[in-house]
Amino acid sequence: MSVQERKQRERAERERLIVATARELAEQQGWDAVTTRRLAERIEYSQPVLYSHFRGKREIIGAVALEGATEMAAALRAATSAEHTPRARVTALAHAYLDFAERNPAVYDALFQLDGGLTYAQEDTPEPLKDAFAALLECLTDVAGDGIHPGLFTEVFWASLHGLATLTRAGRLLPGDAGQRVRLLVDRLAVA
Amino acid sequence: MSVQERKQRERAERERLIVATARELAEQQGWDAVTTRRLAERIEYSQPVLYSHFRGKREIIGAVALEGATEMAAALRAATSAEHTPRARVTALAHAYLDFAERNPAVYDALFQLDGGLTYAQEDTPEPLKDAFAALLECLTDVAGDGIHPGLFTEVFWASLHGLATLTRAGRLLPGDAGQRVRLLVDRLAVA
DNA sequence: GACCCGATCCTAGCACCGCTAGACAATCGA
DNA sequence: TCGATTGTCTAGCGGTGCTAGGATCGGGTC
């Protein structure tokens, strides 16, 4: 059975290579540049090999999104754990979120802008996505305020961050005042 | 000169037809379905005719966006003008904004998600875009709060609405609690 | 060691995309 | 009436995501 195991291992390794390469290419040149031909060339296999791992380009985007969700959750938790007051934690969370979006635009797009074939806010939502939302929830529950459902508050806060992230990156908002916008948002939304 | 005038008129008319058809097709079947071939077929001209009006598909998207911006500004002003307190105006504004996004998803995408080749937040930003932002600003200035720049406040409020609109439509938020989310947002962000 | 057979991979091609060159027809001014 | 200009179309380029079908390789069996 050792041969089969080796093959399985190699196959899994190649799958990771595909996802990593797609992500790298997307970060370098944008998702438009991630074509099945280019991707196949970079991993040094022919196009159809991609389709033996994923149903199509959409699923590859989805795989990058899941990888990104795990990283984002970790980044958010790391940023908030260093702070000692609820208010400071929320500020750190907001900055960490926007930083992640700015530093990993392609991953952020895969998560929240593109169609990766993933389901959100459902029971069958993949675990990494649920966990990323949980990372937000953990921090934001403390400042939701009395009588406000933490989930609802988290959704609103998250939507605001998402709006800032996407509008800034799309050139709809000038990046200069980002700090002021975060401060205003946290000041108003978070209950002390 | 009458002949030339007639031709100019017909040409302008055809341009309107292109934009209207693109918009209609996008609303019916999504922007992916708006291909130059299909668009040409619908207006009953050949493909190259499109390129005598617009540089390319991107400019067509931009034209739809500008048309949409004008409509959105009008819709926001209409909604807010019926209310008599600042707080009620802001609530009406938020609902009108999200309604517009929900009822005209393709136009909303052209405005804020897709690349229509337009510049935002600059001096050479097209007038309709500036005016749409102005419509938000007019209403939100009253609730920005002391010492807060109305423009900054408007950006943050707008980003929050944009986040809610896009995440909801992309399936990232369930549409059920939309009303509660708006109330929470207005309650916290708007200073009475 | 030779053979079979299944898994694996690639070549070639499909229909479609945005966009454009060049041929052709219609129309205008002289 | 004729030449020039304008307008439109046909045909085609290089690209896209995706797939059918043949070649090749390697493990398991005799």
From TrEMBL, chains A, B:
- Keywords noted in UniProt: DNA-binding, Transcription, Transcription regulation
Which PROSITE patterns does the UniProt entry name for this protein? HTH_TETR_2
Note the InterPro entries from the entry. Homeodomain-like_sf, HTH-type_TetR-like_transc_reg, HTH_TetR, MT1864/Rv1816-like_C, Tet_transcr_reg_TetR-rel_C_sf
HTH tetR-type domain location? 12-72
Q: GO terms for molecular function, please?
A: DNA-binding transcription factor activity; transcription cis-regulatory region binding
Q: Does the keyword Zinc apply?
A: no
Location of the DNA-binding region in this protein: 35-54
Q: Which PANTHER family match?
A: HTH-TYPE TRANSCRIPTIONAL REGULATOR BETI, HTH-TYPE TRANSCRIPTIONAL REGULATOR RUTR
What protein am I looking at? TetR family transcriptional regulator
Q: Which organism is it from?
A: Streptomyces populi
